[in-house]
Design a protein that fits this description.
This protein has about 200 residues and is an all-alpha fold. It has helices spanning about 1-30, 35-50, 55-100, 105-120, 125-180, 185-200. The N and C termini lie far apart (about 85 Å).
Length: about 200
Amino acid sequence: HLVSMQSEIENTKSEMRLTLDNAITELEAKVNRGELKGGLSLYAKVRLMLSDLPEHEQFIQRDRIRALMHRLRELQDWRSFAESPKRLILLKQMKNLAESPLKPPEQHKRLKKFRSEWNSLGRAAGSQQLKLQKRFDEFAEIAFEPCKRYFESLADLKQKNLDRKKKIFNELKIFEASIDWSNADWKIIDTKLRKTRKRWQAS
């Protein structure tokens, strides 16, 4: 029974070593292709796998993994360097939107577009990009103010129209209840209905 357990433990360790080795090979391929996002995600998994192995086995893979970590950092630096001009352009566009607002619907459309493009660049890294992020968010908040007021006024108008419709509906119910249908004046009823329909459509 003890031999069986030892054999099972060794098999498990072998599987873990093989899984780790495959993951490191895949990580190397991602780094070679310049896949930063996928590489960082897989690197985190590799670190977890490595921590499950005995210390002497961790040591065997340590240099290989450190080299990959160094290359991932280089990729991050280059990506950050390449993205900075794009961030500066978007920051300027958002600043213009804040200082010279368009009509609210178009303003909101542009704001969403710039925010989406900014987010597609990934999370800000480093003090310079974090400063740009802060300024971008501040300008975005200012740019959204006219949209916020516009949407609030739309919501208020919708509520007023709804209240008018409820009032018209209640008036119609009262009018209907007041009619003596056995001796109804259809001309008055028709006039009332036409006026009510116009009021309803105008609300």
